[in-house]
Amino acid sequence: MADMDTVQEISKDLDLDNLVHLENMFVEFGREDGLAAGIKNGAIEGRVMGCERGFELSREVGYYAGCALLWKALAHQDPERISEKTLKKINSLLDLIQTFPRQNQLDDDIIALLDRIRGKFKTVASALQTTERYAEAPNSKMIY
After folding, report:
1. Taking Cα atoms as reference points, which of 70, 61, 116 lies closest to residue 90?
2. What CA–CA distances, in Å, run from 52 to 10, 69, 112, 113?
3. pTM of the model
4. What's the mean pLDDT when you consider all of the chain?
5. Is 28 helix (H, G, I), strand (E, B) or coil?
6. Which residues of 86-99 are buried (b: 16+ CB within 10 A; e: fewer)?
7. What whole-number distance in Å separates Cα of residue 121 and Cα of residue 115?
8. For residue 3, what pLDDT is reported?
9. How far apart are CA 48 and CA 33, in angstroms?
10. Which pLDDT value is given to residue 5?
C-alpha cells in the first residue's frame, strides 16, 4: 500500500497541464531569443554585403573614370591621335561618371546608370580601337 500512496502523491505533484505549459513557455522564450538574434545578425550581414557590393561598383566606375581621364590627357597631349568626335565621347563618358552617386540613395537606379556607363565606355574604347575592358577582381576572401 505504501507504493500506491507514493504514486498518488507523485501524480498530485506532477500535473501534466503544468508540464505542457512549462514546455510551451520555453518554446516561446526560445522563439523570442531566436528572432532577436536573427534581426541582429541579419542587420550585420546586410551591412557587410552592402559595403562589399558598394566597393565593387565603385571600383568598376573608378576604372572607367581612370581610363577616360587617361584618354583625355592623351588627347590634349597629342591632338592628332584622338579626333574631336572621340574627345566629345570621352567627355560624355566623364559627365556620365560624374552623375554616379557617391552616397547611398534609395531613389537612384544605380544599376541602370552603371549599364549606361559601361555602354558609353565600350563606345569610346571602340572609337579608340582599343580592347580595353574592365576585369572583375576575384571575390573577397575576408572572413567575418
Report:
1. 70
2. 61, 25, 19, 19
3. 0.69
4. 82
5. helix
6. bbebbeebbebbee
7. 10
8. 61
9. 23
10. 61
The CA distance from 117 to 65, in Å, is 10
What confidence category does residue 67 fall into, taking pLDDT thresholds of 50, 70 and 90? very high
Nearest to 135 by CA among 67, 87, 72, 82: 67
Contacts of 59 (CB under 8 A, 6+ apart): 137
Q: Please check the confidence at residue 60 and state whether its pLDDT lies above 80.
A: yes
Write the DSSP assignment of 79-116 as a string of letters: TTTS-HHHHHHHHHHHHHHHTS-SS--TTS-HHHHHHH
Q: What percent of the chain has pLDDT over 90?
A: 35
Count of residues for the chain? 144
Q: Is residue 71 packed enough to be buried (19+ CB in 10 Å), middle (13-18) or exposed (0-12)?
A: buried
Instruction: Give dist(CA 132, CA 115) in Å, integer.
Output: 17
